[in-house]
Amino acid sequence: MTIYEARYQQYLTDLETALPLYLPEQPREKGGLPVEAARYSLLGGGKRVRPVLLLAFCDLLGVERPAAMPFACALEMIHTYSLIHDDLPCMDDDDLRRGHPTCHRAYGEAVAILAGDTLLNRACEILLATVSLDLPGSLQAARLIAAAAGSKGMIGGQALDLAAEGKSIQLEDLRQIHKLKTGALIMAPVMAAACLAGASSEITMILENFASAIGLAFQIQDDILDVTADTAALGKSTGKDQRDQKSTYVALLGLEQARRHLVDSIGTARKALADLDRAGLRTEFLSGLTDYLLARTS
Ligand code: GRG
Q1: Alpha-carbon torsion 284, 214, 102, 127, what sign?
Q2: C-alpha–C-alpha distance, residues 150 and 75, integer Å
Q3: Quick one: which of 71, 142, 172, 277 has the fewest CB in 10 Å?
Q4: pLDDT of 38-63, one tens digit each?
Q5: What φ, ψ does residue 2 adopt, rounded to 5°?
Q6: DSSP for residue 181
Q7: Is the beta carbon of 86 within 6 A of some atom in ligand 1?
Q8: Looking at ligand 1, which residue's alpha carbon is closest to its atom 13?
Q9: Residue 30 C-alpha to ligand 1 middle, in angstroms?
Q10: How far apart are CA 143 and CA 125, in angstroms?
Q11: Which H or E run includes 104?
Q12: Angstrom distances, CA of residue 206 to CA of 183, 194, 200, 239, 269
């Protein structure tokens, strides 16, 4: 196991310990069925890329773990809610997520909608319980996460993505969809860490460059994996983009050009890491994470 892998594993262990504590069980007779369904989706796997990014940047910038963890868990809850709702028959209509039947397949549509709502509300509760004058930057970090998940971020991206189905769009439009739908929630953990750390404007700008580059790289790789990976390895159905006539990097440019754009984005991320190195920050783990985003198969 490389040092990078060991550290990712440690982040995962810390998150898998914290997440169930932030969403405790609630008996069914007390209205807890949506909580059960939310726990089914939240605790049933996933790469945890967004909370790992938050913890890693907080470690890099010297934010204490107790301050960082609630933000990390709230983000993963928001991400999981978006996956549950995205999988519904009225959106992507998917049967498989994180290697298991999707939430609505396991619990029915009505409960799955409530499970997503539960996760979003719980995330808000966690953020509101955490922000404090004693934790500088916490209000700004919470606001930034809420905005990233909202209509000018992920939800806006999802709306544009749904509207573009079956239509031919330009690469610039696709970039905008990716920037909002996927990029916003990949950038949020990095920028939230910067707020919590009270990072200088110079460092914040470098972080922004890094985060927007890996956000795009993450989505291009997702487009590529939809046509190259197999369902078992990915833990979700493949070939969906073509089925739904979605505009993706692969559909617009072909596989080879999509890979070229992926490599370009990773190059931009690496330049930002070199800038952080020059500023005296240790970026070995982030460099490993960047390489992983290029090579990931799930
Ligand atoms: C329904 C409001 C609403 C938003 C949905 C997340 C999303 C927006 C749609 C899911 C479909 C999709 C391809 C989104 C792009 C983001 C993405 C690659 C999600 C999957 O994230 P991973 O790979 O999943 O991090 P795990 O399971 O590892 O957490």
Answers
A1: positive
A2: 13
A3: 172
A4: 999 999 999 999 999 999 999 999 99
A5: -75, 170
A6: I
A7: yes
A8: 222
A9: 31
A10: 13
A11: helix 103-107
A12: 16, 10, 10, 35, 9
